[in-house]
Amino acid sequence: MNAKIVVIKGDGIGPETVSEAMRALAVIGKRFGHTFQLQEYEAGGCAIAHSGSCLPDDTLAACLVADCVLFGAVGGPKWDSLPQHLVPERALLTMRDKMGLYANLRPIKMFPQLYHASPLLPQVAAQGIDLMLVRELTGGIYFGSHDIVLRGGQSVASDLMSYSESEIERIARTAFEMAKKRHGRVVSVDKSDVLSCSRLWKEVVHRIARDEYPSIQLTDMLADSIAMQLMRNPWQFDVVLTENMLGDVLSGEACMLTGSIGMIPSASLGDGTVGIYEPIHGSAPDIAGQNIANPIGAILSIAMMLRSSFGLLAEAEAIEAGVNRVLDDGYRTVDIMSAGCVPVSCSKMGELIAGAILSSQMYRKIARTLPQPSVQGSKKSKKAADFF
Q: Which residues, in sequence order, are CB contacts of 152 under 8 Å at separation 6+?
């Protein structure tokens, strides 16, 4: 394997967590004999500071010819006052649009070692969470027209939400294909009680299910209802299909239920194998530069890349097994810390996981430099291939 990967570290904690993901990729290359050509470019707030644009032309051009993109995070309070078309977050929206990446996949998994970190009641968290959220990325209100006009002596704002049948069809097929690989169930989320877009969404999704995927069990659920059900019994869900804005909100809730948003990877994909892979944690400017961020979501994004874009299953499982071993042995960043475990920095967590990926001997060598946990993970991990 010889792959060209564009790396955009971005703002806030992005450079810290992505650096650890790059470390994991390097040891995968060493262990399995692959070559990954990493090319770093800027986007987001750091790019605005250097070039005046959140997405410089050379960055977009590189993304359009790369095999994949590894993305950190963008944004922060210092750029909030910019016009909407200039804010750092616009860079990611434009990349998804220009690269034709219309499907965002977020695997929402409860690590068995981290039940204690979930805000759910212990008896609810103990049931686990294992769902795939499939969110439409390039349509809806985020890509509609946005206006603020003076009317009757006051400002009036409007944002246009629209979806075409073809946009709904392709994301529905993505969700149904994912369900075929999992447990055969899809919950389609809408607000058809009030929105015309949702009524069309519901009609098209049902047509695709009836005509093309009769073996898949399809259920409709209103957005407010699923928000409640995620808190009540999240283990009931298999694949959750949403439009853009509802998926943005619900995926944040679902990810936090697993214990920390620092644990969750994501992939943005289109019709081919090219994708943007990123942790979902955001730029977190309040802890940037302190070396305390959780890099596991970024590292697991590499596993998603290896599996989904390059078909390297053993390599992806090696990363996931490395993460599980470190958690099993009781090493934690501050966001997932519990009694009896050993706190480690962002860079040390990355070093431990890289060591575990490379070899047991290397992992033990790194672990000997740290205090030993008095307890191990609350539950041992399953085999990585079963868990992910």
A: none
